[in-house]
Each structure stands twice: as structure tokens, then as C-alpha cells.
Write a structure and sequence with these properties.
The structure is a single chain. The protein is an all-alpha fold. The chain has one domain: ABC transporter involved in vitamin B12 uptake, BtuC (Orthogonal Bundle), CATH 1.10.3470.10. Helices cover 80% and strands 0% of the residues. The relative contact order is 0.18. The chain is built from 11 helices and no strands.
Length: 261
């Protein structure tokens, strides 16, 4: 079955949707949208470094995305405005990555594939990486769910309950870096943030509990992946942007549903 490139594309898109959606709920709750973009944009630098040192692309993107996330998180609490810092980090990381990619000698690098995704080229190894990374993210979130929720609702309440909110933030940062590393092949660095945020934003008005919102976001993420792939196949459009467009359409439908109810 996995010899069919379209089936591999479907499995890859569904895997990324399932990995990104529950984490996206925390991104929405904590208002970390620009934080996610900065981390995703840094992945391009990771791709360039991975090619330069002949290491797996996922390893390079994971290390650089994690380093960027930790750097921004550390500087945010030291007198720097969050919006300013994230803007500088996001655009600088993307520009530095593009420059570094152009300087990698002897490497044939299709930047469009890493910027906007190339889901139709997903192979069996990529599927193993995507689903393995998704399982790791789910494991982290299930393991720390209640503590992450408490730290998100109120850091003071977390401290009073014996929970270190800074540690929980670092766990979220690790999970975010993993999602960026596994999603870059499917939707690309420029669209990862959208896949994190839009399904969770659509689910926000359809759920009454955090658990319901996370599960609803998963369903919307998977549906967006399938609808986007169908649209890309039917209308010969880029798969990654088509998936994000489908997610945006589902978000608009959720707004109408909230108005009606």
C-alpha cells in the first residue's frame, strides 16, 4: 500500500495534522502564534546546516528550531518586548536560513519544497519520522497534560500547586520543535504556524473543555489535510497551501456555526 505516493501523502498529512492540533491548542491558549512562526522559520537554517554537515534534515531542523525557541523564550523575560523580539527573530532566522542555503556548496536544494512543503515526495522513512514524532508529542502532552493546563491558566496557581511553570514551558518548546521538524516536509516552514493555529482556533468555539478542544482540533486538522489533498489533486494546486486553505475554510465554517448557535 505504501508504494502508492498518494497514499503516502495522505498518511503524512494526517500524521502532521494529528501531531500539530493538540499542541496548537496550547499555542492558542498561551498566545504563542508568533513564537511558533519564529521557531518554524528557523527550520530553514537547520535544513542548510544539515546539508552542509551531511546529517539528516530532521536532526538539523530539530536542533535549530529548539535552539531558536529556547533563545526567544529566555530573552523574552529579560526586558525585551515580546512582539519586537519575535519579529526580529522570525525574519532574521528566515533570512539567515535562505542565505546559508545559498552558500551550501554542492547541495541541490529545492527551497520551495522546504518553504511551502512537498508532500507528494513523502517516502516511507518520512512517514516513520512524522508518525514517530507525532507519537512523541502526544506522549509528552498526555504525560504533562494537567500540569501544562495549570501552568497555562495561572503561573501563580501552578507555583502554589508545586508545579514549575517554566519547566512546563520548556516541555511545550520541545514539543513545538518536534512538530516543526516533522512538518516541514509536508507544509513547509512558512505554513507550519498556520497548521498549528487554525485548527485549534476553529475548535475553540466548538468545545466546552480543554480536552474537547484538543480532540476537536485533531479532527479539524485531519479533515483539513484530507480536503486540502483532494483539492490539490482535483485542481492541480500546491498541496501544502491547499491544506492550509482547507483549514481556513473550516475555521470560517466554525464561525458561522457559533453565530447560528
Amino acid at each position: 500500500m505504501l508504494d502508492d505516493f498518494l497514499v503516502r501523502a495522505v498518511l503524512g498529512a494526517v500524521g502532521v495534522g494529528l501531531a500539530a492540533a493538540p499542541l496548537g491548542s496550547f499555542v492558542v491558549w498561551r498566545r504563542m502564534a508568533y513564537f511558533g512562526d519564529a521557531t518554524a522559520h528557523a527550520a530553514i537554517l537547520g535544513v542548510a546546516l544539515a546539508l552542509a554537515f551531511s546529517v539528516p534534515v530532521m536532526a538539523g531542523t530539530l536542533v535549530v528550531a529548539l535552539a531558536m525557541a529556547l533563545l526567544v523564550s529566555r530573552l523574552s523575560g529579560r526586558g525585551y518586548g515580546s512582539d519586537m523580539l519575535l519579529g526580529v527573530a522570525s525574519h532574521s532566522a528566515l533570512a539567515l536560513g535562505l542565505v546559508a542555503a545559498s552558500l551550501v556548496a554542492g547541495a541541490r536544494l529545492d527551497l520551495n519544497a522546504f518553504l511551502f512543503g512537498d508532500i507528494l515526495s513523502v517516502g516511507k522513512t518520512d512517514l516513520a519520522v512524522i508518525w514517530g514524532g507525532g507519537a512523541l508529542v502526544w506522549g509528552l502532552l498526555v504525560w504533562r497534560w494537567q500540569k501544562l493546563l495549570t501552568a497555562t491558566v495561572s503561573p501563580d496557581l501552578a507555583w502554589a500547586s508545586g508545579i514549575n511553570p517554566e519547566r512546563e514551558s520548556r516541555i511545550l518548546i520541545v514539543a513545538l520543535a518536534i512538530v516543526v521538524a516533522v512538518a516541514i516536509k509536508v507544509v513547509g516552514a512558512l505554513l507550519i504556524g498556520a497548521l498549528l493555529i487554525i485548527p485549534a482556533a476553529a475548535a475553540r468555539g466548538l468545545a466546552r473543555t480543554p480536552e474537547q478542544m484538543a480532540l476537536c482540533a485533531c479532527a479539524i486538522g485531519v479533515l483539513a489535510a484530507l480536503a486540502g489533498l483532494w483539492g490539490a489533486w482535483e485542481f492541480d494546486t500546491p498541496a501544502g497551501p491547499s491544506i492550509v486553505c482547507a483549514a481556513a475554510g473550516l475555521f470560517l465554517i466554525s464561525l458561522v456555526f457559533r453565530k447560528v448557535n
